[in-house]
Design a protein that fits this description.
With about 650 residues, this protein is an alpha+beta fold. It is built from 23 helices and 18 strands.
Length: about 650
């Protein structure tokens, strides 16, 4: 295994602009200022006041008296990322996915620290003998003979970027957490009566015959009598009311919009290319093999054999017991390795063994490169378009700050959106009558509503003919909106919605009449009647279902758990009528038999129930303990350090 060096990632942390907009509007009043002051003091009291302070160093979170180190977070993040990448998911540095994975990893480390702290408070101590025993029995550190190998141990730590001291610290915390959770999970056995009752309830089955009958097969399509539609509309006024609509003029500018108008001369592009040669150079990579030795003498003895012409794989097997297929490390560039290893490894000719090197993490290593890809430099002509795009976008992002100030200045003079856009040579746009949920009054107008998350919130927060302040949207834009028309929400008359009301009334009435018809037929059939004969005019046939439990819907289209629940409430021979899942059919079912469950006849099933009940109890205890830990321990996060690295 080869020690790798992690490179930090950075990305800005976005703040929800819509929430800031709401606060901005109300924060100017003196009650609001007092309220915000109280909140600020409460942060200090809860120990979260320094969440936004960069304390320096490598501590990314303080958890009570413990600290979470950024290096541990990098390792945890890498493990999270590796599981995604193994499934073909590429994670871009600074992306939303990268930030989410970093936060998930940090949350887990914080929980681990809380559990370790609690374990220490409970007097759980981990001695060196316990640590040694755990390492010696960890199969990850075994050689081919199945025993612990210091070389394998050192290689495994180097692959994960861990020193022995740091690994022992992490291992001690994990064992303490495990002992804490084991003690919390020492719940008493589940009472036999409870386990039997739950088993019988869960495993009891029903046998039924069933058919799904279209509503139209039971009754003809109904027609409304005079006044029916008016009554239906009155009973469902809110379903047919017109929402409030607003028209708006707005400016929404993104860096991409400015970048298109930035002109770059050839000298700028060439200078940018020359200033960062590494950006256009793909470093040489080599495919390495490696042998690991606990002592320098053992490594030198193996190297002498190689110098004498011995085969690399044979020497490795003879000296270390490692098979040939286990020697390959993979492809590496110089920057992937510790500097003290990279120099000698990339200076040696491909195919030659490199003299023994001291591992930065202990032991001695012999390497050999078996293949290589040379350094590749992208010429300026091929890189020019990418440079132009990147440089213009970078300049546009810088220009956004000045543009925001210019927009603010113009709006402060009383200019409206159209005047501000004209003065800054930007394109103002308009929308006509849009609802708060993004629907237009005229669905045929083909108006395009911006995707900016804050857009609709700002429209419905602002006052008419009063431009909003400049808002930095969470997707990187600058937004100003000016409401030009407000159409109040109102109840629609029947003349406006008669078609919709008629369709809805007919569907509801049809389902109601079909249910009544199905029940009438069932009453005639009774307990002993043949259902296929009773419902013959509907053209459906009844099928006997495979026995099912109360949490299992029969595998028949449109039959849901509502029907299952009705059958579990019924007596044998009773017919139940329920609406189908889509509401356009009636499900007619007769309960034929109740199949009781016997815990004695299914010991494995009973054991599974007992285990699920025990796990539920343990989960409840752990959840309660976790909540108590968070309540009693202050947790603060170094957001600047988190932002710097992820």
């Amino acid at each position: 295994f080869t020690p790798l060096r992690c490179a930090p990632f950075s990305t800005p942390i976005q703040i929800g602009a819509s929430m800031l907009t709401q606060m901005r509007k109300g924060a100017s009043s003196w009650p609001a200022k007092i309220f915000l002051g109280v909140i600020a003091l409460s942060f200090v009291g809860w120990g979260v006041g320094d969440v936004f302070v960069n304390r320096g160093g490598t501590t990314v979170a303080d958890v009570g008296s413990a600290e979470v180190d950024i290096r541990d977070l990098q390792i945890a993040y890498s493990n999270q990322a590796r599981s995604f990448q193994s499934q073909g998911v590429q994670i871009e540095a600074g992306s939303d996915l990268a930030q989410a994975l970093a936060r998930v990893a940090l949350d887990q480390l914080i929980l681990d620290s809380l559990q370790s702290e609690t374990g220490a408070e409970f007097g759980i101590t981990i001695g060196t003998d316990t640590l040694r025993e755990d390492i010696l029995n960890n199969g990850l550190f075994f050689d081919d003979s199945g025993v612990f190998s210091p070389a394998v141990f050192a290689g495994a730590l180097s692959t994960r970027g861990l020193t022995e001291a740091r690994y022992l610290g992490l291992l001690g915390g994990q064992i303490r957490e495990s002992q804490l959770l084991n003690s919390l999970g020492a719940v008493p056995p589940v009472p036999v009566v409870l386990a039997d009752s739950v088993f019988e309830y869960r495993h009891e089955q029903r046998v039924a015959e069933l058919a799904v009958i279209p509503n139209e097969a039971l009754v003809p399509n109904p027609e409304p009598a005079a006044g029916d539609l008016e009554k239906f509309l009155e009973a469902n006024l809110t379903e047919y009311s017109a929402p409030e609509y607003r028209s708006v003029d707005f400016l929404l500018v993104y860096p991409d919009d400015l970048a298109r108008n930035i002109e770059l001369d050839e000298a700028q592009l060439r200078q940018t290319y020359d200033a960062a040669p590494g950006a256009w150079t793909r470093a040489e990579t080599r495919l390495f093999q490696q042998m690991s030795f606990p002592t320098e003498d053992a490594a030198n003895a193996a190297f002498e054999e190689l110098q004498g012409g011995a085969d690399f794989a044979q020497v490795a097997f003879d000296q270390t017991g490692v098979a040939a297929e286990e020697l390959d490390l993979g492809w590496f560039a110089p920057g992937d390795l510790f500097p003290e290893l990279a120099g000698p490894l990339f200076a040696a000719p491909v195919g030659d063994a490199v003299a023994p090197l001291a591992s930065p993490l202990g032991g001695w290593l012999i390497f050999r490169a078996t293949d290589m890809t040379p350094e590749q430099v992208t010429p300026y002509e091929e890189a020019r378009d990418a440079i132009a795009t990147s440089l213009s976008l970078r300049m546009a992002r810088v220009a956004m700050f000045g543009l925001a100030n210019d927009m603010d200045d113009l709006l402060a003079t009383g200019a409206n959106v159209a005047e501000t856009a004209a003065a800054l040579e930007l394109d103002a746009r308009s929308l006509t009558r849009v609802s708060s949920f993004g629907a237009t009054e005229d669905p045929m107008s083909l108006q395009i509503i911006p995707d900016a998350p804050e857009f609709l919130d700002e429209i419905y927060f602002g006052d008419i003919d009063f431009p909003s302040p400049v808002i930095e949207t969470s997707d990187g834009g600058l937004l100003v909106v000016e409401v030009t028309e407000i159409v109040e929400a109102r109840l629609r008359g029947l003349d406006e919605v008669e078609g919709h009301v008629l369709a809805d009334w007919r569907e509801q009435k049809l389902a109601e009449l079909a249910g009544e018809a199905a029940r009438s037929i069932a009453d005639v059939a009774g307990i002993m009647g043949e259902l296929n004969a009773a419902y013959s005019e509907t053209g459906v046939s009844f099928d006997t279902l495979t026995p099912f439990v109360r949490t299992q819907a029969p595998g028949i289209d449109n039959v849901g758990l509502e029907t299952v629940a009705a059958l579990f409430e019924a007596r044998p021979g009773e017919i139940v009528i329920t609406p189908s899942v889509d509401g356009q059919h009636q499900v007619v079912a007769r309960l034929l038999d109740i199949v009781s469950s016997d815990p004695i006849a299914d010991p494995e099933g009973l054991l599974a129930v007992e285990q699920s009940l025990t796990n539920g109890l343990i989960s409840d205890v752990v959840d309660q303990n976790t909540a108590a830990m968070y309540d009693s321990t202050s947790v603060s996060i170094n957001s600047e350090l988190l932002e710097e690295y992820f």
